[in-house]
Known about the structure:
- The chain is of the alpha+beta class.
- The chain has helices at 26-37, 43-46, 74-77, 83-97, 126-133, 158-172; strands at 4-5, 19-25, 51-52, 57-64, 69-71, 100-104, 110-114, 140-146, 149-154, 184-188, 193-197.
- The relative contact order is 0.14.
Amino acid sequence: xxxxxxxxxxxxxxxxxxxxxxxxxxDELREEILQTLGEDADVDADFPIYHLWxxxxxxxxxxxxxxxYTFISKRHLGIExxxxxxxxxxxxxxxxxxEFRLVETVFGCYQVCGDPDHCVTAMFVAPMWEKIVAxxxxxxxxxFPGYDLLFLTPADDEEGIANLKMELYKIxxxxxxxxxxxxxxxxxxxxxxxxxxxxxxxxPD
Length: 205
C-alpha cells in the first residue's frame, strides 16, 4: 500500500478538498493497524470507516496530505461531519480531480489508465465507471491485481479472458510494489451489478 497512516489527529474541515474514496483489503489493513499501533490499537475506533464490497474488498476514505494518505476513522469524524456527508464529499472530490481512459493492452485486453494511485477506485465511483465502460457495450470481466492495475475484457470473449488470466498469473509472480489480489469480477452493464467469479473456473457463457 502507499504510505498510509491510520492514527493521525487532524481536522477534516482543513482538508475537505483532498478527501477521496479508496479501496483496501480488510484483513491486510486490520493486520497493519495491529502491527503499527500494537497494544494501543483500538481496532473499532482506529479502523477506517468503510463499506464492504465483495470478498474482502472494501471502500474507505483517505485524506491526501501531500506525501502520504491517511485513512479516515471514526476518531477523525468527531462532530465535523457524518459518514454519509463524508462519502458524498469524497465521491464528489474524486469526480472533480481525476480522469481515466480505456486503452488496449499488448496482451489482448483493456486497461483503465489515469492517476496510478486511484485507478482501481474509479470502479466505485458510479458515474465515472459507467462512462469508462460504456464503449464496451456489453458485460465485462474485471481484474485489479494492484492499485494501479485495472484490467477488463468482454465477458463473452473467451480469448480475452484467457489472456487476462495469464496476465494475472504473470503479475502474481512478479512481486509488484502495490499488490491486491488476482480476483475476477463480473460487471453486468445493463443492470449495473457486480459479482465475484472464480478465476480458475470462469469461462464465458
